[in-house]
């Protein structure tokens, strides 16, 4: 029986020629990641293991991004605990405020990811790196602690679901719409424990940013990981950023899939996930008909805070003003993206439109800070979760959407797509 | 060891954001986390929960964020066991690693109502709803996971391995 991309990467890191679905394997890990919320718990557990040193100071990434710049005294103490650990163990990839970014935007950008790598992170969106043909998955703090001590982690070899992408996406349709469409189709536990393997000719029309966004949200279908083949685009990105091509693993022709879905990208429409689950999806046109008024729009996060997302949002906002009843918060995901926004004049577009632009942080995505919602308030966000209370009060609401939809909604004051703005009477 | 307590019943897709909202993640102290366990979907939970009680839920319990604070908060609140139709994978892994007993059992999850008396014996592989007089067979955990639990969780397992070196 052939193997999937994921199974081949697990086999290679377990030192085995072959692995089968359901098998328990111990793998060498190439990189272990923690942040200012999960690393403090992991550091406590690391110390309980009795380890005196980390397994490899070059293979651990610690990123303060969730509650930084420190939102309160308790958060400051957690950030300090991680900083002190990084200093004590001389961790190479510790990224201080002012040099950091939202972890899953930062790591690929900083060249810490290449095809064929095996990466674990104490953050559920660690699955993002599958966009570059890596196996990456979220774990808890105790798993991170053990990995920091031993450089190894246990996995149950997952089955896979194949998503064969065909065609080209239409205007204002990107990775976010495709992945929301898929989650809407299979449900928030539709890929529970499985790999989501994206294949097909349609991949060629997806940018690296589209793929990062899609792999990022594999967890919202319950998946262990999401993965794309490492094609020329992914390998080129890795060469440019990581200065190494990595190893491209292709699925065997006779690899086993528990399900296959064919998705014609040309038929995917701009898609919005209504409260309170990411699978509660409608097309943006259906949303427009409901005239859902919003109080806030957030454009950023590990899902959609990359330069292409900033450009897409600015493309809509240029020459327009944010609706008088809406606060628009734009959060470029890394320092590099932030500066690129300056160079390209996007910052002027945002500020001229009446948006607030933040330093990189996860901030409002998880209801941390920088844009918390009051009772009854409603936001459109390019983030990844719209659970009860996710962005603030338990009686607030989050609608998940792409950067063009979030930008258009900020202008119109209701949940809508860019094309709505050009319709008669919709613009100011 | 027998686990015994009353059921607190929830629906499908209970996510880790409602188990412990992110606004409380500026601490790792289990007793502080326990004060806010389930507060966004069940305000009365913390006042009502008694030592030994069970959380019983539908599909995909613990979906969302990888925060290990979720099983930590549940355990520190006094809950002795979580029974669900199914679990999200990171939560399941974290529960094992932090030694919070978790049992996947469709029938038991569907039949339990708030306040039912539940009992589990993990060694014997038996789950009971005493109020209904029902006994359920529990799907055994994979042998490796049983080994991990017997070692006292992942940290103790790792410590033993480091000492062997």
Structure description:
The complex is a heterodimer of chains A (428) and B (165). In chain A, 32% of the residues lie in helices and 17% in strands. Chain A has 428 residues and is α/β, with parallel strands linked by helices. In chain A, strands 4-3-2-5-6 form a 5-stranded parallel sheet. In chain A, strands 16-15-14-17-18 form a 5-stranded parallel sheet. Chain A has a 4-stranded parallel sheet with strand order 10-9-8-11, with helices on one face. In chain A, strand 12 (271-273) and strand 13 form a beta hairpin. The termini of chain A are far apart. The mean pLDDT of chain A is 97. By secondary structure, chain B is an alpha/beta fold. Chain B has one domain: Aconitase, domain 4. Chain B is built from 8 helices and 7 strands. Chain B has helices at residues 16-19, 30-34, 45-48, 69-76, 89-97, 106-111, 143-150, 154-164, and strands spanning 2-9, 54-57, 81-84, 102-104, 117-121, 126-129, 134-137. In chain B, strand 3, helix 5 (89-97) and strand 4 (102-104) form a beta-alpha-beta unit. Chains A and B meet through helix 2, helix 3 and helix 5 of A and helix 5 and helix 8 of B.
